[in-house]
Amino acid sequence: MSLRSLLHKSQPEQQFLLFQSSSSQSALPILRSLLAVKSQTSTLLFCLLYPPSDLVEGAREDVQVHDCLDCVPGYSTDDVDVRTTIIAAIEKAPAGALSIVIDSVDTLTSDFGSDAETIKFLRELASIVASWPSPSRLIIHTITPQPILVQSSFSPSLTHITVYPPVLLTHLATEYLTPPPPLSPEPKFWGVFLPFSERASETDRLVYGPEGRGSGSQEEMIVQILVRYGGKSTSRRRSVERFLEGWSMVHNIYVELSELSSLKKIYAAKKTSAPDPTQNVSFNLNLTPSQQQSRAQVPLPYAHESKPDPIQGAAIFYDPDSADDIDDDDPDEDLDI
Asked: Which domain holds residue 109?
């Protein structure tokens, strides 16, 4: 499932969408574009990290926004558990398909004070979504990697969207000589990209290090999409797909990697053909068609017309040289051994 199908088509198979940002690049532009698509599905948006204005523009009939920025345990005046707020809003939701959007897992963990409590609550939400009419979805935004949420035990179907700064691909292309597909074979590229991208410190060093620009790109970014099909769907067999796309924050639209301005040098370098060694020399190294035909008709001195019988096995052919002394007599017959 590409970004196009994610933003413009309903995906009943994918009940769980995970958007993963990082300290160097934010996935909010894609999440905001997803929420901007109007549909018949009711949406409950719970803002715990970013203000609602960063995710939706203006009032929407199909999007019910819950501003939970002030729901901080020990500091808010009402001191209401955010779990109670979310469950109550779900119980009051209209009948039909429902999308639950939570921003973000990191804030939930901070409020609950435990990773186990957070995962337990998210499992409860996932079971609620599974019981609602299709195409209901649970959409979560996170900054810290959540390995448990990616496992099939949490949700058989999954769409995991992870964003990176473009400098990550330019670094792999220059330092590891591994540009993105199709410029490099996919097994080779993913074998280099995945281990490097999973080390967040390496990406942060490229952005915030001495040679970095000090922040993620404000114009475009790289999007890795991992799609796992499973669950109740019978239209597709269980499989996993992984691919890269680009996102232009200037035009707020998905683009091909080759269309990103930060990667044009990589694709332009690959399109440039190697220089012809037969050019700019004082003599001609090329053959005319007639010369090539005449050369093909020249018999080779080392080629034997008679071939060994494959039934009898291999054979050794030897052409004696003019200096060879071919004698059938035993050269050691005068020795008394």
From this structure: 3-271
